[in-house]
Design brief:
Blueprint (H helix, E strand, L loop, with lengths): L13 H15 L4 H8 L3 H8 L9 H9 L4 H12 L6 H9 L2 E6 L10 H11 L5 H14 L10 E7 H5 L5 H11 L8 E6 L12 E6 L5 E7 L2 E5 L2 H17 L3 H14 L9
Helix pairs in contact: 1-5, 4-5, 7-8, 10-12
């Protein structure tokens, strides 16, 4: 039996507001879901799910809808609100600044940074860390995080420099297949015009950035905002003293970590450690 559509609450939910506005704009110009599907190249099932609030609008649907309806950046703006709605509140301000940043520098101690995560890796993290949530909620969290990666695909993406603890390569999130895909996705980004990845090996030992996450966001006016996160908590700083100290810590880690070439070799070695074993021939 078909499940009845739930009542949308656009006044209290960005996702519901997105669905209501999509249906309104579509009906305003007399388009069926089938025709809309042809125009934006998304399935009718997905579009219906977005309209009824059952699915999140996967990128880059918002840009395609704005182009199709001639609505400027209406749906792109709504998508920003939807993403924030499905992100822990402590990270909201950091997300807003991340979308504006011209330079992003980050250190991660235990997991691959969100901007670099594959969908399967994301889902594995959420399924373990958000136990008890429904599949649709996990889908929403993953879609929101995936949407953040749009900043890397724009016409003028920020310069990004990530330092990853070797632990991020060795922690088998989601199992071997997920890790092979994730580490394979890292390799092309190790040393490009806009991206750098270094690995801090276990042999480096303890340092001021050994645990947690550190993100430094440089805005167009040259100001730098710091976000740092530990187990279950995060905080944003923009005072000069704190930011200057943590920028120094990050620069020191750059000097101590492996070079991009050495980092690529270590990522490749970790990737190969997840390769499936060949069956024994008899």
């Amino acid at each position: 039996m078909t499940r009845p559509a739930r009542n949308l609450e656009p006044a209290g939910s960005a996702r519901d507001l997105y669905g209501v506005e999509l249906r309104r704009q579509r009906q305003l110009i007399g388009l069926s879901l089938d025709r809309m599907s042809d125009i934006v190249n998304y399935s009718k099932t997905h579009l219906h799910g977005v309209e009824t609030g059952e699915r999140l609008p996967l990128p880059p649907l918002s840009e395609k809808l704005d182009a199709a309806f001639g609505t400027g950046e209406l749906f792109q703006g709504l998508w920003g609100a939807v993403k924030r709605e499905h992100t822990p509140r402590r990270f909201d301000h950091c997300l807003e600044l991340e979308a504006q940043a011209v330079r992003i520098q980050a250190y991660n101690a235990s997991v691959i940074p969100g901007l670099l995560q594959t969908p399967a890796y994301m889902r594995a993290l959420f399924e373990e860390g958000e136990r008890g949530r429904a599949c649709t909620e996990i889908d929403a969290l993953a879609a929101a995080r995936l949407g953040r990666q749009e900043v890397l695909r724009g016409d003028d993406p920020p310069a990004c420099w990530w330092i990853l603890s070797e632990a991020t390569l060795r922690l088998a999130v989601g199992g071997p297949a997920v890790m092979r895909e994730q580490l394979t996705a890292l390799l092309p980004l190790v040393n490009t015009r806009r991206t750098t990845i270094q690995v801090a090996p276990f042999a480096l030992g303890a340092c001021s950035l050994t645990s947690g996450t550190l993100v430094l966001l440089t805005l167009p006016d040259g100001s730098v905002t710091l976000y740092q996160e530990g187990a279950g908590n995060g905080e944003v700083f923009d005072d000069r003293e704190t930011v200057t100290r943590r920028v120094g810590d990050f620069d020191y880690m750059k000097a101590c970590a492996l070079s991009p070439r050495e980092s690529a070799a270590l990522i490749q070695a970790a990737l190969e450690s997840y390769e499936p074993c060949e069956p024994t021939r008899t």
